[in-house]
């Protein structure tokens, strides 16, 4: 009788962050560009997402469901300030909702991210410091600057 050697399907094969990058990196970059509307910023987020992914890789069960969907979900959690969801559902309407605020438009990119992460997404300063690889003091300083800009706008 003829023996057929079955190779494990793609979903059953062991996965590494490198495999995910090879398979889905270009698609994820396109996805991020659509959200942030800036290729340079999108490339920076892609790097950050895969760095964070490699740190949290063992905590994710890659065997359940589509790897692309899981990777997309992971990216959405990292792009919450642009997606604008505090519940992590990834529903659209985020940054447009926040940047239509004339006060937020006056903030630079970092100030807007920190402000939105704290006040819209209810993250703690310590969490943001870890995510942005900055000190808690620098996060507080940036937040204070953002408040000063918004306060000056409202006085004018």
Task: Describe the protein's architecture and organization.
The protein has two domains: 14-78; 80-156, Winged helix-like DNA-binding domain superfamily/Winged helix DNA-binding domain (Arc Repressor Mutant, subunit A), CATH 1.10.10. Helix content is 66%, strand content 0%. It contains nine helices and no strands. The chain has helices at residues 17-36, 39-56, 67-78, 80-83, 94-99, 102-105, 109-119, 125-132, 136-155. α8 packs across α9 (136-155). The N and C termini lie far apart (86 Å).
Kindly provide the name of the CATH class of the largest domain.
Answer: Mainly Alpha
Name of the CATH architecture of the largest domain: Orthogonal Bundle
Q: What would you call the structural class?
A: mainly alpha
Uncertain segments: 7-11, 85-100
Percent helix, as a range, is 55-70%
Question: How large is the radius of gyration?
Answer: 19 Å
The rough form would be described as elongated
Number of strands: 0
Percent strand equals under 5%
Order of helices and strands: HHHHHHHHH
The helix count comes to: 9
Q: What's the structural domain tally?
A: 2
CATH fold label of the largest domain: Arc Repressor Mutant, subunit A
Q: Write down the overall mean pLDDT.
A: 75
The main β sheet shows up as: none
CATH superfamily of the largest domain: Winged helix-like DNA-binding domain superfamily/Winged helix DNA-binding domain
**What is the CA-CA span between the terminal residues?**
86 Å
Characterize the quaternary organization of these chains: single chain
């Amino acid at each position: 009788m003829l023996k057929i050697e079955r190779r494990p399907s793609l979903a059953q094969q062991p996965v590494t962050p490198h495999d995910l990058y090879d398979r889905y990196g270009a698609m994820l970059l396109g996805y991020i560009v659509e959200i942030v509307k800036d290729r340079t910023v999108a490339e920076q987020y892609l790097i950050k997402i895969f760095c964070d992914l490699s740190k949290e890789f063992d905590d994710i069960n890659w065997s359940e469901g589509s790897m692309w969907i899981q990777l997309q979900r992971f990216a959405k959690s990292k792009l919450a300030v642009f997606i604008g969801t505090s519940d992590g559902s990834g529903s659209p309407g985020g940054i447009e909702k926040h940047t239509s605020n004339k006060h937020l438009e006056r903030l630079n990119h970092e100030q807007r991210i920190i402000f939105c992460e704290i006040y819209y997404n209810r993250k703690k300063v310590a969490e943001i410091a870890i995510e942005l690889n900055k000190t808690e003091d620098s996060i507080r300083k940036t937040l204070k600057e953002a408040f000063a800009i918004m306060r000056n706008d409202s006085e004018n």
